Amino acid sequence: MQEITHKVFIENSYLGVTLGAINLTHGLLLIDAPPRPEDVRSWRASLLNLGGGVDRLLVNLDAHTDRTLGVRAMECTVLAHEKTAQVFRNRPTAFKSQDVETGADWELCNGLGSIRWAPPEITFTHHMFIHWDEQPVMIEHHPGSHQGAIWVTVPEEKVIFLGDAVIPNQPPFLASGDLPEWIASLELLLSPTYADTLLIGGRTGLVTHDQVKTQIDFLRLVETRLAALAAQKASPEATANLIPELLGVFKVPDLRYEQYSQRLKWGLLYYYTRHYRTNAAEDVEE
User: Fold this and answer.
1) Burial class (CB in 10 A: 0-12, 13-18, 19+), 125
2) Element of type H or E holding 206
3) Which of 7, 84, 118, 175 could form a disulfide with 267 if both were Cys (CB 3.0 to 4.6 A apart)?
4) Do the beta carbons of residue 203 and residue 16 sit within 8 Å?
């Protein structure tokens, strides 16, 4: 666990997700959960060392399986955006490992079996404040990477947890995204307001402002290529032809090449279907 300010901690050693813990007078505000049961147990044990208040509140930054699969085992109250709650209402009661390949990290886990979801018990629509200390923690809706994506801001410490808004050095999850809204959200981070802010990505930990710019450039490239396919009235399956160019933007380790290719294949196919075809599917899981 890394202490990035005297109140804010992150953990980046578990598969698929960067976890957060904000140590407030009233209790711990937790960011996301690891997908594997053994990692949940390890994370909970680590949190015991932080002390602080007795209460625990877990925030899901979106509905992605990587960050929501282990939530029930955290055994605490869960908060998320209303659109994230809607995703859970459309899911079966329990998760069952299946052969769908979306390029997500949970697909690398063995022996997950059947796990019951933990839908959020507290939801909001635009923003809310957690008054567990002298200064409140702010939670805001920032759609783009996901319809229910949110940011958690600790103004006193100048820290923001961004979720999947920025994923350096690997392709982002596109299937549930909205590229114009995504780009607009990221451009906010380049304004003077956030010049001295520590940015925490939901996959890789600390994120630089240069990496935010790189993410914007990549999303604009994807938007341009998909719009060109749409102008040609290409089929959704034609999006697979974009994978070599888009994956070439990243320095992909050999062990991750197949996974990241599949992530792009899945994401491009469903993004194109949702945004450029009249019979678009509304909800897609990654």
Assistant:
1) exposed
2) strand 205-207
3) 175
4) yes
**Is pLDDT at 279 greater than 60 in this prediction?**
no
Rounded to whole angstroms, the maximal C-alpha distance in the chain is 59
- Residue 165 sits at φ, ψ, to 5 deg, of -60, -35
Taking the CA atoms of 209, 212, 214 and 217 in sequence, report the sign of the dihedral they define. Answer: negative
Instruction: Name the β-bridge partners of 55.
Output: 27
Query: 3-class SS at 139?
Result: strand
Helix axes 209-231, 179-189, angle to 10 degrees: 160
Phi, psi of 16 (to 5 degrees): 90, -20
d(CA 174, CA 145): 7
Cα–Cα nearest to 118, from 70, 56, 176, 47: 70
Average pLDDT over residues 235-246: 95
How far is residue 62's CA from residue 103's CA, in Å, rounded to a whole number? 17
Distance CA 195, CA 131 (A): 25
Q: Which helix (H) or strand (E) holds 80?
A: strand 77-81
Distance CA 172, CA 58 (A): 24
Instruction: Find how far residue 55's CA is from the centre of its chain.
Output: 24
CB atoms within 10 A of CB 180: 13
What global pTM score does this model have?
Answer: 0.91
DSSP letter at 261?
H
pLDDT at 98: 64
CA distances from 232 to 71, 238, 241, 265 (A): 43, 11, 14, 19
50 exposure class (CB count in 10 Å sphere: 0-12, 13-18, 19+) = middle
- Kindly list the structural domains of the chain, giving each domain's residue range(s) and its CATH number in brackets, ordered by start: 2-276 (3.60.15.10)
